[in-house]
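fwd from M.: "can u put these together and see what the complex looks like"

so here's what she sent:
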Amino acid sequence: MMSRARLLTIARKEVRHIFRDWQTLVVVLIMPVMMMFLYGYALNADAKEIPVMIEMPSPAPETRQVADKIDASSLFAVVGTIPAAADPAELFRLHGIKALFRFPAGFARDVRRPGGARVQVLVDGSDPNLGTIIRNAAEPMLLGATLQVLGVQQPKVLDMRTLILYNPEQRSALFFVPGLMAVILLMISALLTSVAIAREKELGTMGQLLVSPLRPLEIIVGKIIPYIFLAAIDGFLILAVGRLAFGVRIAGNPWFLAVCSLVYIFTALAIGLLISTIAKRQQHAMFMAIGATMMPTVLLSGFIFPVVSMPLPLQILSRIIPATYFLEIVRGIILKGVGLRELWTPLAVLLGEGLALTGLAIAKFKVKL
Amino acid sequence: MEYSIRTEQLTKRFGAFTAVDHIDVAVEKGEIFGFLGANGAGKTTAIRMLCGLLNPTSGQGSVAGFDILKETARIRTRIGYMSQKFSLYPDLSVEENLRLYGGLYGLSRKDLDLRIREMGDFLGLRDLLKRVTGSLPWGWQQRLSLACANLHSPEILFLDEPTGSVDPVSRRNFWDLIHRLSAQGTTIFITSHYMDEVEYCHRLSIMIDGRIAAMGSPRDLKREHGCASIHEMFLKLMEHKPLSEPKSLLKPNPSFESKPAAGGTPS
């Protein structure tokens, strides 16, 4: 049996450590808020005023009008118009342009011919995201501009209307708030507990605790209790900032979200415990915790890169890490407003993983040094 | 005779290496028992088995009347342990450390207040209670370690090289405290490799390569081996070690080194 008095003694001691080391505490509380604003603004930056150049050997009125339409769009800014580009690569190098629109000499004549005119667009592919944006935007824009200049009505053969569910405005806040919940709760829980336990080993105080009447389980549970609160505070902080600064509302039941978050924190703590059974020093624990939690969560959970587009081995890995399931749960509750009926599978997986990892950690935690 | 600590053929092996090799020790209540040996002789391993931190490979033992194999939980409430490394929390104050250890041993608030006052007076820590432990000089940290280990009035105190890297004056004071605790009936089991200070022990054993090479009161041991000091006796015992031992921590003795084969008797 665990003694409540001894548990509280250890938990109180741990709280003292947390408050004495106030720098770490500040980092733990400020980091999530900072990350939210960073993600919030970095992800919101839509591409605008991309510098481009236009090659136009014969400035016929039609050609000029189409070129003006390019400049008038918010996506592109024409920084120069030249009659002939002898060495297009040099233009990219010297002027820092991201695309070069090359109109042929007979553009104005060709557009009225059955075969149509040919326009070449050179795109800087060194930034793949930007390259994709330019490629996707260029054709419809040029086609629309040309038709308008010619005064031609496009024949209507297809009327496609896209309706986006759950996040109709495609706001990035709705995407990064769940993602940051998954990253930060996991990292805080796993990192802080594994470092706290490794610290006791490094100081030699673990040996001192183990010769006392304390049971190993009491040491573990007592030490973990304050970090559960700390992680919960961070979770609350993320949701509060998401609501107040980015207008993210929880569509589903907030209490259900809290329960799911606690299950996730429990799993994360188990990872931290497991790390602490291996790591002998605080630094080992820190590197292992970051490596085991932060990186897979950011890269593999589907937070940033969609899981379906990953190669099979990574998809399998993604199916192993707890963050994938938590992300599914959080997105479900915040965006879709669904509950236990829809989310019991990921929740059960999360709980199962937590229990298995805890069992493993306790078995590995050396009762006798 | 009732013994505070008793072992029979206690042995611990780590793989092929035998750290503690069939030792028999019997320590009486209130005795200061010195447990000597070079680094790596097996002292710490033996202490850890007695405290229930390590399971013996074979043999048996009892501490405070309880079996070290089966009754470790009972033993833990009756012993105090001070490790060779400073093992308190440097970020907590002296009083917070004391209260923490009192709490772990289940002392009531009233008892704890009383014991903190007693220990504070006894060890001269009273004016330092609010100080952050990490800012105290070494000698005071050692005293605090002793206070924490002794807070719950244990029957037996295990002190694992408590005077390592402490200046001679602090060391002398420390031994005064130990003698006073012994006079109050606390059994002291202390390891050390300072041969001068172990003369203060009531009885001592000398451990070499996991075995007990000699045991008795300092005076008897010196007479038996015809040595003027324990220091001299220890060196003499070490010389009898087989030459094959690779990690002798002593300076090589020229006469010993010139011997061609292992196991020869030194001149």
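replying to her w this: The longest helix of chain B spans residues 168-183.
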